[in-house]
Write a structure and sequence with these properties.
The protein is an alpha/beta fold. Helix content is about 25%, strand content about 40%. It starts with a strand and ends with a strand.
Length: about 130
């Protein structure tokens, strides 16, 4: 995967969830086909932390089942860094369990929310492009 494509409504859904959960980290799963997102599914961060996230296991399972039922694949896992780096943290790299999946980090280093996506190979992150379709 060299890029991940989102419709504007998907970007807005992620951004709204991040703002709603602030100052805690938000998280969720993206489903779709190839590199094109068709579903954004927010999942509760059971840690309720501004520096860590852990998806509610039942909600995560339900989201994955919903994606599979549609014949889609898990394309991405997103979370926010409310006060942290715009890239993946060491914790993110160590806890990444889906090597074929893009990890998206929403952060606001300059006051406005932005998003970066990464593929993780051998605990190393490689940035991939995010394309937002209007």
């Amino acid at each position: 995967m060299d890029r991940i494509e989102l419709k504007r409504e998907h970007w807005d859904m992620m951004l709204n969830e991040v703002k709603k959960c602030y100052p805690e980290e938000a998280c969720g799963i993206l489903g779709g086909i190839d590199h094109i997102v068709e579903d954004v599914i927010p999942v509760t961060n059971i840690l309720h932390s501004p520096t860590r996230y852990r998806m509610d296991p039942q909600e995560q399972l339900n989201a994955m089942q919903r994606i599979e039922d549609k014949g889609h694949s898990i394309l991405g896992i997103y979370h926010s860094h409310v006060n942290g780096p715009s890239g993946l943290s060491a914790t993110d790299l160590n806890e990444a369990n889906y090597p074929e999946t893009a990890y998206l980090v929403l952060s606001k280093p300059l006051g406005e929310w932005e998003c970066k996506a990464f593929l993780i190979e051998d605990r190393r992150a490689r940035e991939v492009a995010i394309v937002i379709q209007e």
